[in-house]
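Today's session is about reading a structure prediction critically. Students often jump straight to the picture, but the first step is always the sequence itself: look for stretches that repeat, for charged clusters, for runs of hydrophobic residues. Only then move on to the predicted structure, which in these notes is written as discrete structure tokens rather than atom positions. Here is the chain we will use throughout the hour.
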Amino acid sequence: ALLIGKKFTRESNSPMGGPPGGIPIGRYVKAEGDSAHVVLVNDILSEVDPQVTRWLNHDFIKIENPKSITLVGTKPEANWNVVRNSATDPWKLADAKTGEEGDNSKISNVANYLTTFSFTDVLAPNAQPAETGLDHPATVTVETVDGFSYVLRIGKVMGENYPLMISV
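Below is the predicted structure for this chain, in token form.
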């Protein structure tokens, strides 16, 4: 394993000047566990990005062919459960009251969203459940035609994102 340090730069000799901070011409590296030897290589290693979010596969979860979707939140009146018998059947509200019907297009939009599900980053290991809302999350449970069961625990909004814990 290599530890990749900061870029080594040189000021431009051009009469037009150069970029602020100089022109990158190399990078400091050292072998992991070797604190005595740091080497300057003449490659800036531009393909190596220290931003972990760029290394992540942001769409690693694809929930396909759901047959039931259940939301249980902190407000019982907002809870719901929809079901269907196969991947091509229309959605129905489970436990619907007399005269109550679900909007199949809206339910289909929710189900379709599950196939394009993605995330932006990973929470820090020391993230506090009380701060993220994961101490009292809303829970979405999805069962698929293929026999998989996904449980998504959704915390409170943080900026434009929601913290989420997923189990399959």
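Discussion point for the tutorial: Helices lie at 104-115, 129-132.
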